[in-house]
Specification:
The complex is a heterodimer of chains A (335) and B (271). Chain A has 335 residues and is mostly helical. In chain A, 76% of the residues lie in helices and 0% in strands. Chain B is of the alpha/beta class and 271 residues long. In chain B, the strands form three sheets. Chain B has a six-stranded mixed sheet, with helices on both faces. Classes of the chains: A mainly alpha (335), B alpha/beta (271). At the A-B interface, helix 9, helix 10 and helix 11 of A face helix 2 and strand 6 of B.
Chain lengths: 335, 271
């Protein structure tokens, strides 16, 4: 019974936080006004919200909250998956270079096309994927893909793309392009509209769903390769599939939100402390915590000061105290 | 039909031949000890049996089926593997680790079912580890970990257990406890065991427990001698392979008669 209640809590939390976000911001709204906007937009008659209320709730706060849930969930789930695949609790969702590659793609688009969001998304997504493919090719020898080689491949590819980003910053126009690049790299969801969600949610949805569905296999992938094969798993195929899903989720997230650190590394560990390491439980819980956490942080980002604070700055500043609290309370749970 | 049938198997890493003309048959209910010095090819042979390495020529058949035509999931229903050391990547609970043995019976996008949990608990019970099921397995000892590995292997419900020096890192008591557990399993369930070991006395222990035991003595990629422990583990053979002087002794106690081989001294340079 208690287990079921906890599970229900983890499922409900992100939805509750999305709803809660609709009230947060400079323009004050009462519960009746929010419900009237949601009612009118859902096609029910008898609701007559003001246009500005519709604009604030439906065009700004709701898409940001939903996108935050998707992005946070994607980063956390793929982080948990990569930690399992690489048998390494210290890797994050960017381990195979997807963040660095996306950063390069976005910077390139900003310089070539002056920051048209469509090109920024497309280039960030494509180069994120390209980076992972490069890491995978580097890390694969003729028979298998040893995890150390893959991680090394990721390190090499990430550093190449980071250097290329520095190069682009160096040649970028310092008044227009350079600030755009710097802000993009710090992460933000300020540009979130439903159109953006519709585009980027597809890879995120596929990635998250895939990883949640195959989450028990992640336990087995975290065993030594020989053992996992002797248990009856086709390692190359299953590992490749998990990497594909994790990459889709991360690339989808990074291309709309920019580089957001911390979530893909630490949120899975919060999950480990709360519910243990079994991926059948950990993956859904990471999804919930990651989604809820990024909604919260984004609310802070858009309300704390008059202008937006980049998300990448806040994720760790807000999360660190909570992480330390969990660490002290659970004593790390078995590590 | 033999459970395992290896015919004229060869294997090499690049130019270095590791297995040469290996013929091996393993029948139901027996314990076969693969015995021989470091680097003689035991682990390579085990990995070939498990389908992890592919012999360059020759054939391996599991219950009559050519291993080359079998997928990992099919091999995992014939042979269950117990490694020498198990690396613990995350503090999983003991029961979660044992459940992993059920993966060959579970679809890619499925979770283990209630019945799988029951099978895992039974397996833990058989090795005497049921009380540990909810403990993080990073907090149990090396001896307990090997028993958990046996339980995991049992959930695969295979006719054969394959072990690679499973007691190499265990203390005196845990080693004996491990051997006793295996003997009980063989007696109760008629499971077959292939075990690589560095200790000739393991083979004697199994023989003395009244189980049909065989020894395949390996040296330099080949089988040097095959047969019952008493036929193979002789003072002469120990000298030929290890260049050591040893003494075969026999001791009578209330549990029966136990034979052991005592290492006495080394001769010259080990080749």
């Amino acid at each position: 019974m208690r287990k079921k209640l906890t599970a229900a809590g983890f499922v409900a939390a992100p939805f509750a936080l999305i709803f809660f976000s609709l009230f947060i911001g400079r323009y004050p709204l009462s519960i009746n006004e929010v419900i009237s906007v949601l009612g009118a937009k859902s096609g029910f008659s008898g609701f007559a919200p003001l246009p500005i209320q519709v604009n604030v709730v439906w065009d700004i706060r709701l898409p940001r909250a939903i996108l935050g849930a998707f992005v946070g969930g994607s980063l956390a789930v793929s982080g948990a998956a990569f930690q399992g695949i690489f048998r390494n609790p210290l890797v994050s969702s960017g381990v195979l270079g997807v963040s660095a590659g996306a950063g390069f793609g976005a910077s390139l688009a900003i310089i070539l096309f002056g920051g048209d969001t469509f090109y920024v998304y497309a280039f960030a997504f494509l180069f994120g994927i390209v980076a992972v493919i490069l890491s995978y090719v580097i890390g694969t020898n003729y028979t298998s893909t040893p995890t150390i080689m893959l991680v090394l491949g990721g390190v090499v590819v990430s550093s190449i793309f980071s250097s290329l980003v520095s190069l682009l910053k160096y040649i970028a126009d310092p008044y227009e392009q350079l600030p755009s690049i710097v802000f993009w790299l710090m992460g933000s969801m300020a540009s979130a509209r439903f159109r953006d969600i519709a585009i980027s949610a597809v890879p995120m949805w596929v990635g998250i769903t895939g990883l949640v569905a195959m989450r028990w296999r992640l336990n087995i992938l975290s065993m030594d390769d020989r053992e996992a094969q002797a248990l009856g798993v086709n390692i190359a195929f299953v590992k490749g599939l998990a990497i594909l899903f994790a990459t889709l989720a991360t690339a989808g997230a990074v291309c709309v939100s920019g580089v957001i650190g911390w979530v893909g590394l630490v949120v899975p560990h919060m999950g480990r402390m709360l519910v243990g390491n079994d991926n059948t439980v950990l993956v859904p819980v990471s999804l919930s915590i990651g989604a809820g956490y990024l909604i919260l942080v984004d609310n802070v980002a858009r309300t704390l000061t008059g202008s937006e604070i980049p998300l990448g700055i806040l994720t760790s500043i807000i999360g660190a105290p909570f992480f330390v609290y969990l660490l002290k309370k659970t004593k790390g749970r078995g590590w | 039909m033999s459970l395992i049938d290896v015919k004229k198997a060869f294997f090499s890493y690049g130019n270095r031949t590791v297995l040469e003309n290996i013929d091996l048959r393993v029948n139901k209910g027996e314990i076969l000890c693969l015995f021989g010095p470091n680097g003689c090819g035991k682990t390579t042979l085990i990995q070939c049996l498990l389908g992890i390495l592919k012999p360059s020529c020759g054939s391996i058949r599991l219950r009559g089926r050519d291993i080359r035509s079998m997928k990992p999931v099919e091999i995992a229903r014939e042979l269950a593997y117990i490694p020498q050391v198990h690396e613990k990547p995350f503090p999983y609970r003991v029961i979660d680790v044992v459940l992993m043995g059920r993966v060959s019976y579970t679809g890619l996008f499925s979770l283990p079912k209630k019945q799988d949990v029951r099978i895992a608990e039974e397996a833990l019970d058989k090795v005497g580890m049921l009380a540990f099921k909810d403990r993080p397995y990073t907090q149990i000892s090396g001896g307990e970990t090997q028993l958990v590995m046996v339980a995991r292997a049992l959930t695969q419900q295979t006719p054969v257990l394959v072990m690679d020096e499973p007691t190499a890192h265990l203390d005196f008591r845990n080693e004996l406890n491990f051997l006793e557990t295996i003997v009980n399993l063989v007696k109760d369930t008629k499971i077959t065991v292939v075990m690589a070991t560095h200790f000739p006395n393991h083979a004697f222990y199994f023989e003395n427990s009244g189980i049909r035991s065989g020894v395949a003595m390996m040296n330099d990629s080949m089988f040097y001698a095959r047969g019952r422990p008493g036929e193979v583990l002789t003072e002469h053979n120990m000298y030929s392979i290890f260049k050591i002087k040893s003494k075969l002794v026999s001791h009578e106690w209330e549990g029966g008669r136990i034979r052991q081989i005592l290492p006495l001294k080394t001769y010259g340079q080990h080749s």
